[in-house]
Amino acid sequence: MDILFISRFFVVIALIIMMLASLRVSAYKYASTGLFGCSVAVLAFAIALIFIGDMYNIKFSFDIALSLIFFGFVGTIAFAMTMGEEN
Amino acid sequence: MYIIQYIQSFLLIISAIFIIIAAIGIISLNKDMKNVVYARIHIIGIFDMSVVLALIGLGEYLLAGIYFILVPFTAHAIAYAYYKSEDTLNNKSLEDKIKEEEDITENPFIFSKEDIQKAEKEDLVVDTSDGALSLSTLKISEDE
Fold first, then answer.
1. Which of A15, B38, B61, B85 is most exposed, with minimal Cβ within 10 Å?
2. Is residue A58, in this structure, part of any structural domain at all?
3. Which of B9, B24, B37 lies closest to A3 in CB terms?
């Protein structure tokens, strides 16, 4: 195993830790904390998918990660606009 | 060739350390602190930039650029939504609006807990001197 593989593995572990932390944060009392917790969890999962696909040569994981990043972004913006709009 | 690999792995390890620090920070913030949601969004900004660093280290420059442009919009949208809908500390108009809604939606069938406890403590005085109060029971048998 070369050092590049080990460092990628290290990043994946860090991203998993971040996913767990953001899921914990999403259970706090405000709705907006739930929103950004879910958003960060999805983003961390997508980036971890990119790294795993690059490590083990899984080509379709890159497409899944791209779709997660884009649709997660759109969903977060839409939810935030709905929450923030004035009645 | 080895130098590039070392630089890449250095970037990845630095970004992983930053991600772990951000994860610890986002959990360990005090819940009762003022403006804690904005502080958490700030920490998420650290996470996002370290992910950009990691993607550059991986060699995905286009994706890093897209991520660099998209993610600040998300953070700003969440902060805006929190300010407009839930932040009663900074948004004074929201506090007035909540008070108005409470005044408008006064339901005659809903009582506060204090009122019910107060009513339970009071002794109910029933005047039975004129025989106006009577109790009756109705028996229904299965045959009927």
1. B61
2. yes
3. B9
What is the percent of chain B where pLDDT is above 70? 80
Q: A25-79 pLDDT, tens per residue?
A: 999 888 889 998 999 999 999 999 999 999 999 989 999 999 999 999 999 999 9
Q: What is the mean pLDDT of residues B100-115?
A: 70
Q: What is the Cα–Cα distance from A44 to A6, expressed in whole angstroms?
A: 19
Mutate to test the interface with B, among A6, A10, A38, A40 (most CBs of B within 10 A): A40
Q: Which domain holds residue A60?
A: 11-84
Residue A51 lies in a domain: yes
What total number of domains does chain A contain?
A: 1
Say if A40 falls within a structural domain. yes
Count the Cβ atoms, other than its own, within 10 Å of residue B120: 8
CB contact under 8 A, A14 and B16: yes
Write the residue in B12, B60, B73 that is nearest to A11 by C-beta. Answer: B12
